[in-house]
Each structure stands twice: as structure tokens, then as C-alpha cells.
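A student in our group prepared the protein record below, which I am reviewing. Here is the record exactly as it was handed to me.
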Amino acid sequence: MPDDKKRPVHEIRLGRIKAAIWENATDNGKRHNVTLTRLYKDGDHWKDTTSFGRDDLPLLCKVADQAHSWIFNLTGDPPAGEAF
């Protein structure tokens, strides 16, 4: 069966925290969005959630920072509100 789902252009994972980076075409060119999830096991099956506990937050920050850096290095765009 072919996989018709759109896949992220890049993923970053530290432990059970994952960032998926998605590319979207717009009238102004390509833009990127990030989804952050925590993986967990439910019986024999792996699932993900967007709920994070206290101990997940340091890794969440690191993964978000790495996702930001990956997008910035790809596009070279300064963050909103900043100029060169």
C-alpha cells in the first residue's frame, strides 16, 4: 500500500521528545512549521502526545532550539522583527 501521507522534511529527536519540521508552499515562498511531540509506549504500541511533563521541558527546549537552527540554516531568514 503506498504511503499517501505528507512526511516532514526533517525530524529531530532527543530521548522521547521529537520535533517534526514541515515544509509548506505559500505565495511568499516556502515556509516551515514545527510539531513537537512526546513518544510513549501503550502496551506494545508506540504513540505520541502533545502533552509534556515537568521533566520533559528541558529536552523540549533543546529540540525546539535545534529545529529553529535547522530551519534558519536552511532558509537564512532572520527571525521575525529582526534585520541583518
